[in-house]
Amino acid sequence: MARHSEKCLDVTSASTTAGAAVIQYTCGTGTNQQWQLSSLGSGYYNLISRNSGQCLDVTSASTADHATIIQYTCGGATNQQWSLPTV
């Protein structure tokens, strides 16, 4: 859940299609808002959608602000690797 909005990461329309948009949305109980952390070591993780089995992915490995976030087939690319902030 996002601290600022109290909303969840949501795969749009509970899609299981690779390339489906990921947005923030009011939290519910759907599996399209459930994510598994899979450790890759060195403090990085894949976030895997319970609904589709696909990974949270920055489209085209973009490094630009406002880059689109999607779900996509899991691979070894760094645009699917996420770290968690230390508090």
CATH topology: Trefoil (Acidic Fibroblast Growth Factor, subunit A)
Number of helices: 0
CATH class: Mainly Beta
Helix content class: under 10%
Number of domains: 1
The strands making up the biggest β-sheet line up spatially as 3-4-7
Distance between the ends = 15 Å
Question: What is the CATH architecture annotation?
Answer: Trefoil
Instruction: Give the helix/strand class.
Output: mainly beta
Strand content: 35-45%
| Overall average residue pLDDT | 96
- As a whole number of angstroms, the C-alpha radius of gyration is 12 Å
Query: Could you spell the SSE succession in H and E letters?
Result: EEEEEEE
Low-confidence stretches: none
Structure characterization notes:
By secondary structure, the protein is an all-beta fold. The chain has one domain (7-77): Trefoil (Acidic Fibroblast Growth Factor, subunit A). Helices cover 0% and strands 38% of the residues. It is built from no helices and 7 strands. It has strands at residues 7-11, 22-26, 35-41, 44-49, 55-58, 69-72, 82-83. Strands 3-4-7 form a 3-stranded antiparallel β-sheet, with no helix packed on it. A hairpin with a 2-residue loop joins strand 3 and strand 4.
What is the compact description of this entry?
This protein has no helices and seven strands. It is mainly beta.
